[in-house]
Amino acid sequence: MKHPGSRCTAWLMFLVLAPCAGVSAQQLHLADAVHLALIQNPDIKVQRTQVEAAFGQQQQAAGQFDWAVSSGLNYERTISPLTGSAVSSGAYGSVDRTRVFATGYQAALSKQLRNGLIVGAGFDASGTQDATLSPAARQQNLARLNVSLTVPLLQGHGQAVTAVEDAAALTAQARRYDLLDSAAHALYNTLVAYWTYRARIELEKIAISSEERSRSLLESTQKLVDASEKPAADLVLLKADLADKVAAREAATLARTEARQALGRLLGLDASAIAALPEPAEALPGGAAPPQAKLPSLAVLRAQALARRPDVRALALLLDAAQRNVEGARDLLKPRLDLNMGLAYSKASEGEGRYRLFSEPGRYQSAPSVFATLSFAFPIANNQAKGLVRERSAALSQVAIQQSDLATGVATGVDFALQSLMSSASQLDVGRSGLALYEQAVRQEITKQRNGISTLIDVINTEARYISARIGFLQAQLGYATAIARLRLETGTLVPVSDTSDRFSLDPDDLGGFGPLASQTFTPSPARTEDHEK
Predict the structure, then answer these.
(1) In 3D, which of 452, 529, 166 has the Cα closest to residue 322?
(2) Looking at the whole model, is its pTM more than 0.85?
(3) Do the domain assignments include residue 54?
């Protein structure tokens, strides 16, 4: 048995794709527009960079637990003059100055563990050569190997150590859901712009048709005036009517250009590509809405929206991240008390072969040394930590408020979207009936005017009402198409949620509503304005 949410998703996807029909390649299909938007939409591109930046911040936060290697080399040459008494005593032979050469190298390795412990190891070797000493004692070498462990006793241990890293990881995951939310809004805007472009084209056709009818009526009346069958005064009204129709057609052409540019911008096209953008292939939906009994309930749609919407998930992750940030900040309120302990093995030798540790002849110390230190640090006022806790607590409260407000917004948004869909479907039914009646009224009024029963002004007024009805029905179609897209946006079915492996994809083939379902065989018959013109 399928889950109710899957049936809701399938129904919503069907509504968006039901009007699709195959046309020539010179036209822009809805699926193609969606594909372009997913690849080239500027908002999606910007959000992708923000996702990458968030994962970069997560990588930075994890850097505190990296292995750290340090090393160094040193060389020193010291020449010191002897006093007169020292030279005269002959203690240093015949030399009048001392020459000491000191060399050495150091290497160390350390790492902070995610429980707060710090482990480290180091090796350093040094050699001193004094030219004034005897050849046997001239070279003095010392090598030392040590390991250490630092144990935080108050601040800096436990889960608080990874608070920054955890918060960064949660924020990075939230940014991925923000990417899905950005894609959802980009797709919604693309759908609206696509249908608006289609509607503006139809509006221009209505304006052109209206202008042609007005021009035809003027020409036929002009012939009657020339034949002295009509008064010349009738031409004044007809010329004024034609001027209005020409202005309406020019405005419709401008609106079409504006709609094409808006769609092109959403598709990420450049100016030349926008100018060459083809017309939409699909007609505006004008079929009957699904029966009320087949529609999902409002409660089901709300539950589905809360479970699927990426912005809801993103805020939940940001709330967890804010909570971890507060925990990390509160840890800084504690004093710093660290226990550092370790052991070291040292060896000293004379003569050549400096810096060796395990196989040097001569005097050496083989027993290991041990050390332990206890350090304490705590700022008296600790305003930095207190201010950080205050700041992050406020951020936590802010996210909690946003989450509560979003839950309300989801419920009301789904409610409005569903009501809008039902209302726009009803307007389609009423507009379709009214349009057919106005079309019949225009034909009747023209016949009456030819028979001398009605006046020319009656014909013009009836024609104007018919044009208004056509425009109203076109707006109802656009409202219906927009309402479908809005319901999908509000219910979170414009983009998929992550799968069980936490994989996020914006591949059009993964957006079932625009890929596999594009081959739906059952489609409601769209009502075209050309049918009414016939």
Answers:
(1) 166
(2) no
(3) no
CA 438 to centroid of chain Cα atoms: 48
Task: Output b/e per residue, 371-383; b: 16+ Cβ within 10 A.
Answer: eeeeeeeeeeeee
Same domain, 28 and 176: yes
In sequence order, the β-bridge partners of residue 110 are: 68, 120
> Is-contact 116 336, C-beta < 8 A?
no
> Between the CA of residue 321 and those of 65, 234, 235, 392, 494, what are the distances in Å?
19, 76, 75, 10, 27
**Count of C-beta atoms within a 10 Å radius of residue 534:** 6
Q: Which of 389, 319, 326, 314 is nearest to 163 (CA)?
A: 326
- Give CA angle at 413 (409, 419), nearest 5°: 155
Residue 346 corresponds to which tokens in the numbers above? Answer: 């040292």
Distance from chain centroid for Cα 439: 49
User: 293 and 394: one domain?
Assistant: yes
Q: Domain containing 263: what range?
A: 9-40+164-323+390-501
Residue 301 sits in the same domain as residue 344: no
What span, in angstroms and rounded, lies between the C-alpha atoms of 336 and 334? Answer: 7
Place of tokens 């996020």: 504
DSSP category for residue 280: B
Phi and psi of 531, rounded to 5°? Answer: -65, -35
Query: Which pair of tokens denotes residue 379?
Result: 């700022």
pLDDT tens for the chain, 534 residues long, are 344 444 444 434 444 444 443 333 478 999 889 889 989 999 999 999 999 999 999 999 999 999 999 999 988 888 877 666 655 565 555 566 677 888 888 999 999 999 999 999 999 888 887 766 655 556 778 888 999 999 999 999 889 999 999 999 999 999 999 999 999 999 999 999 999 999 999 999 999 988 998 898 888 888 888 888 778 887 888 888 889 989 999 999 999 999 999 999 999 999 999 999 999 998 888 766 555 556 678 888 899 899 889 999 999 999 999 999 999 999 999 999 999 999 998 887 776 555 454 455 445 556 788 999 999 998 999 999 999 999 999 999 999 999 999 999 999 999 999 888 888 888 888 888 887 887 888 778 777 777 777 777 777 788 888 888 888 888 989 998 999 899 989 998 888 765 444 444 554 444 434 332 222 222 222 333 333 333
26 and 151 housed in the same domain: no
Q: How many separate domains does the chain show?
A: 2
Q: Which residues does 266 contact at the CB level (< 8 Å), separation at least 6?
A: 37, 41, 186, 189, 190, 193
Strand, coil or helix: what is 278?
A: coil
The count of other CB atoms within 10 Å of the CB of residue 436 is 14
How far apart, in Å, are the Cα atoms of 424 and each of 189, 192, 268, 394? 19, 15, 30, 43
